[in-house]
């Protein structure tokens, strides 16, 4: 039909040009060994344009993968801009994986160039002999040291070239970035983000009913830039003009809290283990947290007790969100709607612990064992499925998991309920379920309750084999230092008893020094299950 709107592609060069024109003097600050370094958006984007030219001169063609093995810092952001905007694909490597896993991922993605922090060189040295695809290595001097033979120095490389003009007509469906997820069985799987999905995701993050990212914000970007597209926050900050603060390689609670106080940070995001670790440090600088307004928490279930602690101790609401590497990652986010205006504190607090409602751009549903969609009644439990503008349609070069993508829906492997208002609540992951006598028990619900006990630091619930019921729950509990040796199994069970059905009560409670964590800070139940696979439950 004639008279239609213009067909401007939703691509990152357009987003970056907007940032350059409208937010030139907004800043990117990175923690360094002896303080911080700061650059403006214009400087960062100019440096990214030079990096793009240098990469082109090194032979990087359209669609080829450029990997990063870096902490969260300015140069990593420059790669986040340069690589997609020149038409290549940014592949962020998880620096917490074992060298063999990183090597598998580099080979599978066919990475041609790798940008490595000098501080991570010892790790790369273990990966390099196992990969054949990489032609060039660029080293970012995040720590001082001599030039590494056979590599390019990042600063030297970008100093001697002219900035590249990014093509504003880059097709929006072109690949922009990729991330591997170990969330499924077998080898890690590659998720490929497009320019369009990144731009739409940035717009969604900025909605007032979402994370409400704005020009007036100062955001500290703690989520590793190798995990799930850094939650899309770097691009959203560039788009909105929010100042960016990076912790560099100093991912230490006291340092993070110090940066939040000194830089007058207004918003941050992180997995629950980070928020848990940061609480005590934030308390120490409480008087200087006047600007801090909201925290985004996802990646695993946010315990209600932690959320309440933030509200009571610091007056800060933690926004609970759910997502996956495959969903860019934001899928749902929890804010009370107007319908809950008159609800009591307890109801609102319970609701805030849910994973929230889907954002526009994402559809969710729950599906029962029969394959039929289940009602949104807050009770029916089924597998969560999602589809939308920034949801993966398949894995990169891997068709070993057809069960993940069915009829245009991503089968998440999460088990959830959805209530009449659209609030989704994750009960478990399919593989973490405790199936007792054919009925499921929500390990997440029990964990959340145990972590509300004042003497408990962390808790994870796993299934243990049982002769009669197939599986029964075992609670693995970390006591707070002051309660070690004092806290008892009986106290945990009595604490749970008023809140859950009798048959949900764990058959046993074991006290452990720590809950093992995955490379992105989530409870690693695989390891726990291995540790306790021969655990004999008490017979009574
Ligand atoms: P990843 O792709 O590594 O980020 O892992 C995604 C998975 O993390 C999801 O499928 C969920 O199992 C889990 N997850 C993410 N956010 C939440 C949340 N808010 N509550 C419970 N589980 C979550």
Architecture overview:
The chain has 540 residues and is α/β, with parallel strands linked by helices. It has a domain at 433-531: ANL, C-terminal domain (GMP Synthetase, Chain A, domain 3). The model has no long low-confidence stretch (mean pLDDT 95). Adenosine monophosphate (AMP) binds at residues 181, 183, 228, 298-301, 320-325, 329, 355, 412-414, 426, 429, 520.
Gyration radius over CA: 23 Å
Just name the CATH architecture of the domain at 433-531.
2-Layer Sandwich
Q: What is the helical fraction, as a range of percent?
A: 25-40%
The kinds of small molecule bound in this structure are: adenosine monophosphate
List the helices and strands and how they pair.
Layout: H1 12-22, E1 27-32, E2 35-40, H2 41-57, E3 65-69, H3 74-85, E4 89-92, H4 99-109, E5 111-117, H5 121-127, E6 136-140, E7 152-153, H6 154-159, E8 175-181, E9 189-194, H7 195-206, E10 218-220, H8 233-240, E11 243-246, H9 253-262, E12 267-270, H10 272-284, E13 294-297, H11 304-314, E14 317-323, E15 330-333, H12 345-352, E16 357-358, E17 362-367, E18 382-388, E19 405-406, E20 409-418, E21 424-429, E22 434-436, E23 439-441, H13 443-450, E24 456-466, E25 470-479, H14 489-496, E26 508-511, H15 525-531
Parallel strand pairs: 1-11, 3-4, 3-5, 4-8, 5-6, 6-7, 10-11, 10-12, 12-13, 13-14, 25-26
Antiparallel strand pairs: 1-2, 8-9, 14-15, 15-16, 17-18, 18-20, 19-20, 20-21, 22-23, 24-25
This protein binds adenosine monophosphate.
């Amino acid at each position: 039909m004639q008279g239609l709107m213009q067909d401007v592609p939703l691509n990152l060069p357009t987003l970056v040009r907007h940032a350059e024109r409208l937010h030139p003097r907004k800043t990117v600050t990175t923690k360094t060994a002896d303080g911080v370094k700061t650059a403006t958006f214009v400087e960062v984007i100019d440096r990214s344009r030079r990096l793009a030219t240098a990469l082109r001169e090194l032979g990087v063609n359209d669609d080829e993968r450029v990997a990063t093995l870096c902490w969260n810092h300015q140069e990593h952001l420059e790669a986040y801009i340069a690589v997609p905007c020149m038409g290549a694909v940014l592949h962020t490597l998880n620096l917490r994986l074992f060298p063999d896993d990183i090597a598998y991922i580099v080979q599978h993605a066919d990475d041609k160039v790798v940008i490595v922090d000098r501080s991570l060189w010892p790790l790369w040295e273990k990966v390099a002999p196992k990969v054949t695809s990489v032609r060039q290595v660029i080293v970012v001097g995040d720590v001082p040291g001599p030039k590494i033979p056979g590599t390019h120095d990042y600063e030297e490389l970008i100093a001697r070239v002219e900035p590249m003009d990014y093509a504003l007509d880059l097709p929006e469906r072109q690949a922009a970035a990729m991330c591997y997820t170990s969330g499924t069985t077998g080898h890690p799987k590659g998720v490929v983000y497009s320019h369009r999905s990144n731009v739409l995701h940035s717009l969604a993050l900025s909605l007032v009913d979402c994370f409400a990212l704005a020009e007036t914000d100062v955001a500290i970007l703690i989520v590793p830039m190798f995990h799930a597209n850094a939650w899309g926050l770097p691009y959203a900050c560039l788009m909105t003009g929010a100042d960016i603060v990076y912790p560099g390689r100093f991912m230490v609670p006291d340092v993070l809290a110090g940066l939040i106080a000194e830089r007058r940070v207004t918003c941050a995001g992180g997995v629950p283990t980070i928020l848990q670790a940061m609480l005590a440090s934030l308390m120490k600088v409480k008087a200087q947290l006047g600007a801090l307004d909201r925290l985004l928490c996802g990646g695993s279930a946010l315990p209600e007790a932690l959320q309440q602690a933030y509200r009571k101790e610091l007056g800060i609401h933690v926004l609970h969100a759910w997502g996956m590497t495959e969903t860019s990652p934001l899928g749902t986010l929890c804010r009370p709607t107007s319908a809950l205006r008159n609800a009591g504190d307890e109801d609102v607090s319970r609701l805030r612990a849910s994973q929230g409602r889907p954002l526009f751009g994402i559809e969710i549903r729950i599906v029962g064992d029969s394959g039929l969609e289940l009602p949104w009644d807050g009770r029916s439990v089924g597998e969560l499925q999602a589809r939308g503008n920034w949801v993966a349609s398949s894995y990169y070069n891997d068709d070993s998991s057809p069960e993940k993508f069915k009829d245009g829906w991503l089968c998440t492997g999460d088990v959830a309920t959805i209530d009449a208002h659209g609030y989704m609540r994750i009960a478990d992951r399919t593989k973490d379920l405790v199936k007792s006598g054919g009925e499921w028990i929500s390990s997440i619900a029990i964990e959340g309750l145990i972590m509300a006990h004042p003497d408990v630091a962390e808790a994870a619930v796993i299934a243990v084999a049982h002769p009669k019921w197939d599986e029964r729950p075992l609670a693995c509990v970390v006591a707070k230092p002051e309660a070690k040796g004092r806290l008892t199994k009986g106290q945990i069970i009595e604490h749970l008893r008023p809140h859950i059905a009798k048959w949900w009560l764990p058959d046993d409670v074991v006290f452990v020094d720590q809950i093992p964590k995955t490379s992105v800070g989530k409870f690693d139940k695989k390891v726990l299950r291995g540790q306790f696979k021969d655990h004999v439950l008490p017979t009574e």
